[in-house]
Amino acid sequence: MADYALSPRFQAAISALFNAHREDPTKVPTPTTDNPEETTPYSEIYHTRLAHYVSLLSHPSVPSEPLLLAAHGQHIYRWKVPRSSYPEGLAGYKRWRAGLAKMHADETERILTECGYAADPATTDVIPRVRDLIMKRNLATDEEVQMFEDAICLVFLEKEFEGFAGKLSEEKIVDVVKKTWKKMGEKGHKAALSLLGSLPVEAREIIEKALAPTPPDGDVEAGSGSGGASAASS
Description:
The chain has 234 residues and is mainly alpha-helical. It has helices at residues 8-21, 42-58, 65-73, 90-114, 126-134, 143-165, 170-183, 186-195, 201-211; strands spanning 27-29, 39-41.
């Protein structure tokens, strides 16, 4: 366990972030019980799994304090800003995504400030770094931001891909998988592949189709590629 995890400031921040997640009105079956009537706010489950994956991808090291804090704040209060609050179309979608990222970063910063991160000279660099991670700054060049992106993709694959795929045509979801896979790093690819067998058959087949090698021009049949998995980040 990292030394920072024992600090009252870190523990207070994690507690405050989870208190926010428990306000999520979307309830889903609790994954750790066999009782079908027991539910948990989805945001609580999402951030628990995201923290799990940043720890997994950081192994054998432990995730940095900013990375783990970002993992607990990545989608804070997302339900308060629905897609319908922005105009339809691609431009509106991009504005919505950008607005969400800033809101998540702002709300996480507010909680970290309330917990003392801004007041202590030893931790004044934590909040700017958390903002960088949540807003995916320097994704192409920053290894830790890439790790965070990979973890987000893995949660999508594990918890959201099946429902997401059901809303789009196969052609569109295959395109999403291809584009997402290109954004992921090597560690993310390996972890995603390990999740493939846990997916429903229909979802797994879509992912395998998306990641199958493109046949050379002139081939009559598309070859069946090796299995693969991906996830879409947000």
